[in-house]
Amino acid sequence: MQNWRVDSAASITAETMICQLAGMCNGAATWDGAGFSKFDVSFGHSLAEHVQAGRPWTAKQAQAALKMLRKYQRQLGGAVAVDQFMQNPTFRTQPIDPTAAGENAAAPTNDRVLSSRDKAAVFSFRYDPAVVTAIKNIRGEHRGKKYWASWDANARVWTVPVNETSIFQIMDVAEQFCFASEQRFNEYVARVREKTSENRVMVGLNGGRNVMLVDGSIVVAVPNLEIMDEFRRELECA
Hints:
Blueprint: E1 5-6, H1 14-24, H2 41-52, H3 59-71, H4 79-86, E2 90-91, E3 113-117, E4 120-124, H5 129-136, E5 139-142, E6 145-148, E7 150-152, E8 157-161, H6 166-176, E9 180-181, H7 183-196, H8 200-204, E10 211-214, E11 217-220, H9 225-237
Parallel strand pairs: 1-2, 3-9
Antiparallel strand pairs: 3-4, 4-8, 5-6, 7-8, 10-11
């Protein structure tokens, strides 16, 4: 947060650009190069809804928003314009740090918890439609077996099988929506990344997220056209 700047009167801020993308977005029913992709649509709109409701982002949400501005830079004036903005990112409202000490700090929220049960990740949280949508989008295939998120009506939690492919989707949702996660999830991510780090192409794509090397085969966890374009470009340079 050292180079972040707050200016409530600025015409161009991280918030205005996220809202611009949300305004373009058609829910990703089709791929038209405008707005958020299907993978980002729920989180992108939740960020915009925070802005419209006058609620500040958390520091983690602000960091994730800046990453999204990079990802969608072609819709925001191009790489040069976004690079210039990123040199000193401006926010309309100061992002908050729920863990910060002090009387003016926001109280820590503990209603969003990512825990483990057997071989599954368990999402526990107060109902939020944006979070539910994001969790429902966790699905894919690992070693020939499909996986998806399931609602446990008895425990009133969402569960997702944990494997080398699903873990990155799970952690994306946890990070985007500020879940308090068990340390074992971070340790598992580190082990999976170490396992695949010898493959330069895999590491170059999204920090190892969404695209994995499984038993010598390349697996795309999320069928996202932007990711596939990155993948093709990396292969051409390999």
